[in-house]
Inverse folding.
């Protein structure tokens, strides 16, 4: 049975912002950052692409992604 009164824990996680759009880390694909919108319309970048484009990295409270500790 589901417990709807339990809040999922969040932890500090890196995100990138590029031109006012926040890109969140994918849950399972390493170094893949997901923009807003439905799957068929959203923009995705790799970590290297976002860095090359000058995106700003910052920390936000998100659900844990297993690979984000690799992002320095």
């Amino acid at each position: 049975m589901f417990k709807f009164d339990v809040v999922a824990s969040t932890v500090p996680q890196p995100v990138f912002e590029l031109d006012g759009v926040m890109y969140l880390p994918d849950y399972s694909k390493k170094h893949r950052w997901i923009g807003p919108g439905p799957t068929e319309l959203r923009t995705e970048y790799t970590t290297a692409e976002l860095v090359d484009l000058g995106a700003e990295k910052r920390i936000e409270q998100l659900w844990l992604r297993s690979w984000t500790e690799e992002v320095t």
Summary: The longest strand covers residues 11-18.
